[in-house]
Design brief:
single chain; alpha/beta; ABC transporter transmembrane region fold; Rossmann fold; 3 domains; six-stranded mixed sheet; four-stranded antiparallel sheet; disordered N terminus
């Protein structure tokens, strides 16, 4: 029996055609609106898609022709002993097989091209949308989930397009063409074939279900093994095991899980072996029935049926198995595909809380006057963080904000560049509500050095130029000198081209902080904000940073959140925040003499910090 070219897509022997309980519980509701939105991503590529459809149709037909030509090879070539026709049909069959393969290559390339461009569009759309989300989105959502939507989920769209969608079409066309060809040959044998085809799928589905269950158990066991290794093979984990003398206990725990994994692997391997035995038996039934019935018809009732006809029917029957098996599982694949798109659309449909108004203004000749008027703010509706906060910061002046941990100090400064929006009241910049300003313009004029300095995995130069891409060497050096980090850079082997490592891990805390101050100086904003910029540093590093900060505080509009007395004393005014309220304000001497919250903070925190 002559073989065909590449078969229809999808439907492997162990296709995961079963849904987990979680998948069943979270099945998406497939609506016309959802389908319209899904197919809207295909619309820009409709020409390429039309070509793919045509190629799939041609390929489906060509893949069946070698099986049909087998009849001619047997009847006209072998039975009639006609060497010329035998060679002709063999060469024709080979040519068709080659043609089908080449068409399959073209189809795969175009289909992959479409899928890659659609995922390219979706990734760009998703990234652009997420960049516009407020800080609240990133603090309230799991970072791993965000990255999964951007990578695995959108990457899954490619598989949907190249596999699920094309598989439905390819397998459907193959099945239709095979049925038509069989019924044209002999309706009795064709009917027998249709009745037998479901028998092919029974062992596949049952074995697939068993394998899928074992695979899930193996995966869970593998996760447990990885968990043990991550816990006990890390530097900290090994140290803990050794210090508590738990080597034998951990070995026993690992050995038990490892033994469980071995048993599952053996079961999985044997399930596949028994499956092949059953499948081989079942797949033999169909051809044998066609040979039997065909032989009876040919010998007793219809002498027009030839050996070639029976062989063709058996060949076409074999071509029907994979499409039927794949299409039986298509509902599960379809639901998973829709679930994938639904997850992506959930993120794309999230409203953008912080955005420009249509008539938003740009800051011109910014001076840096900041005013809070009766500001209320809550991250969650039932938990108010700031309550009726009012204060004013004039151009060129500085304010220090102090208070117990969790009192709302960092929240106050986050409202100035609109990382969040107030629930009530207003924050104004040069007399204009920050909500009426363009975000890009507002944030250009506000610079922040946070307690947790973030540096990208690149060179010092790369991190500095994040503030100003076209900054000259002279400007960078000047900023580094002002931040008291240039001496360190000069001593480094590669100077400004020194790699800082992931999140700046190759540098000390003080070095990272001074680079972040240099970056801020290079940006040259109107308002400088220092959020506990020296809290995690030793006294030497703090001294160097204080030398960099002092000139800024003296000449520029500045806000400082600090627990170091030296930093606080440099401010023109001190605001004391407790439980979301500004409870005290004034100079250091005034607040100490008042004997309130500030005096308590001074005695428990600031005075000790001053001595350190």
């Amino acid at each position: 029996m002559a073989g065909g070219g590449p078969g229809p897509r999808g439907g492997g022997a162990f296709t995961r055609g079963y849904m987990t309980e979680e998948e069943k519980a979270n099945q998406p509701k497939v609506t016309g609106a959802l389908l319209k939105r899904v197919f809207s991503y295909l619309k820009p590529y409709w020409k390429q898609l039309a070509l793919v459809l045509a190629l799939i149709a041609i390929s489906a037909i060509l893949n069946l022709l070698p099986s049909i030509l087998t009849g001619r090879i047997i009847d006209d070539g072998l039975m009639k002993q006609d060497l010329g026709k035998l060679v002709f049909y063999i060469l024709l069959s080979l040519g068709i097989t080659l043609g089908a393969s080449l068409i399959g290559v073209a189809d795969t390339y175009i289909n992959t091209w479409i899928a890659q461009h659609i995922t390219y569009d979706m990734r760009n759309q998703m990234y652009k949308h997420l960049q516009k989300m407020s800080q609240k989105f990133f603090t309230s959502n799991n970072q791993g989930d965000i990255i999964t939507r951007m990578t695995s989920d959108i990457g899954g769209v490619e598989r949907v397009i190249t596999s699920t969608f094309s598989s439905i079409l390819s397998n459907s066309l193959t099945l239709i063409v095979a049925l038509v060809a069989m019924y044209q040959r002999n309706w009795i044998l064709a009917t027998i074939g249709i009745v037998v085809v479901p028998l092919f799928t029974l062992p596949t589905r049952q074995a697939g279900k068993t394998r899928w269950k074992l695979t899930q158990e193996s995966q869970a066991c593998n996760d447990e093994i990885n968990g043990i290794l991550n816990e006990t093979m890390s530097v900290s984990g090994q140290l803990l095991v050794k210090l508590f003398g738990k080597e034998k206990k951990e070995y026993k725990r690992y050995k038990q899980v490892n033994q469980k994994m071995i048993k599952l692997n053996i079961k999985e391997g044997m399930a596949g072996r028994w499956f092949r035995v059953v499948l081989t038996t079942f797949t033999s039934i169909g051809p044998m029935l066609i040979y039997l019935v065909g032989g009876v018809l040919m010998m007793k009732y219809d002498h027009n049926i030839t050996v070639g006809d029976i062989t063709v029917m058996v060949g076409l029957l074999g071509k029907m198995y994979m499409p039927v098996n794949s299409l039986l599982n298509i509902q599960v694949d379809w639901i998973r595909s829709m679930a994938l798109f639904t997850r992506i659309f959930e993120y794309l449909d999230m409203p953008i809380d912080i955005k420009d108004k249509p008539d938003a203004k740009s800051l011109i000749n910014a001076k840096g006057n900041i005013k809070f008027e009766h500001v209320d703010f809550a991250y969650e509706e039932d938990k108010m963080i700031l309550k009726d906060v009012s204060f004013e910061l004039k151009e060129g002046k500085s304010i220090a904000i102090v208070g117990p941990s969790g009192s709302g100090k960092s929240t106050i400064i986050n409202l100035i560049p609109r990382l969040y929006d107030v629930n009530a009241g207003s924050v104004t910049f040069d007399g204009v509500d920050v909500r009426d300003l363009k975000l890009s313009s507002l944030r250009d004029h506000v610079g922040v050095v946070s307690q947790e300095t973030y540096l990208f995995n690149g060179t010092i130069r790369d991190n500095l130029r994040y503030a100003k891409e076209k900054a000259t060497e002279e400007k960078m050096i000047e900023a580094c000198k002002k931040a008291n980090i240039y001496d360190f850079i000069q001593q480094a082997e590669n100077g400004l081209d020194t790699m800082v490592g992931n999140r700046g891990l190759k540098l000390s805390g003080g070095e990272k902080q001074r680079i972040s101050i240099a970056r801020l100086l290079l940006k040259d904003p109107t308002v400088f904000i220092f959020d506990e910029a020296t809290s995690a540093l030793d006294s030497i590093s703090e001294s160097k940073i204080q030398e960099a900060i002092d000139p800024i505080i003296q000449s520029r509009t500045s806000i400082l959140i600090a627990h170091r007395l030296s930093t606080i004393l440099a401010a023109d005014e001190i605001l004391v925040v407790k439980e979301g309220h500004i409870v005290e304000r004034g100079t250091h001497k005034e607040l100490v003499d008042a004997g309130g919250v500030y005096q308590e903070l001074y005695e428990t925190q600031f005075s000790k910090a001053a001595e350190s």
